[in-house]
Fold glutamate decarboxylase.
Amino acid sequence: MTEKDQALEQNWLGSTESGEDLPDQDIPEQAMNPTVAKQLIQHFRLNEAKADQNLTTFCTTQMEPEADELMKEAMNTNAIDKTEYPKTAAMCDRCVAMIGHMWGIPEDEKFPKDYIGTSTVGSSEGCMLGGLGMLFTWKHRAKAAGININDLDHHRPNLIIGSGYQVVWQKFCTYWNVEMRQVPLKKGSDELNLNIDEAMKLVDENTIGIVAIFGITYTGAIDDVQALDQRVSEYNQSHPDLPLRIHVDSAYNGFFAPWVSGFKPWDFRLKNVASINVSGHKYGMVYPGIGWIVWRKNNYDYLPKELRFSVQYLG
Ligand SMILES: Cc1ncc(COP(=O)(O)O)c(C=O)c1O
């Protein structure tokens, strides 16, 4: 470090460089002193940088210093390229294995032989992947049942969900041209979760699945997944060709409910629950960004072949 840099580090506020603006349109002509750059950025996002007051994610997002060190050491890996970083990928797999068992996958079933899943960028990506799993498996089941899935006038796929959904479900339906069939939350009543009777009335042969929200962002209520599963079982008995599936969006409850008593079964203990997503950070003291999705079976009927990718050229 030069003498000037040292001086800047101690007292950057009075320096000429501290008068510089953070660029917002073009890459600047001149380099900026790194100490000044760092401090300008720190000031710019000061109000957002207090992890123990990070209410925007519902919770605190600070962690132990050891976690900081591990994160720093891993910063130079591009974890999305799993073939390049097999040890990092193996650690991810261990987490999926544990989460699956935490959510009721029987102990004698093993990851990845019997069930499958992955880390995601928050629940936002987890929900997207859950939706894709439902859409693509529906296409296969519908085709086998003789439905012309290319006839979108009559067979546009639809998804049923309570209207207290998080915006990611709207994105999923928009990106993939899926009709979102919303079940309204009743105004002025105690019914701040999914009305199962109303949800079942919306089901038809083009329904890719029902999303149960196990922790509704707006109301704090939870959908009754057990009651929904019961109704779906009854429906499936009379519709063996096109059985319905449930995806549970447990963004902020999936790491909570397994550890407290009083919740009715909501997870893979229920037979029609095909997949579950969760956010890593919604119960506090975890850095944000990570999420997870687990499918109850590792077979093409739950996660079709075309959604699985094998990469040969990395690594
Ligand atoms: C029910 C629900 N689903 C999905 C999400 C998206 O989660 P994330 O912020 O981890 O992407 C949220 C976040 O608020 C949520 O509450």
Notes: The chain has nine helices and seven strands. The two ends are 37 Å apart (CA to CA). The chain has a mean pLDDT of 91.
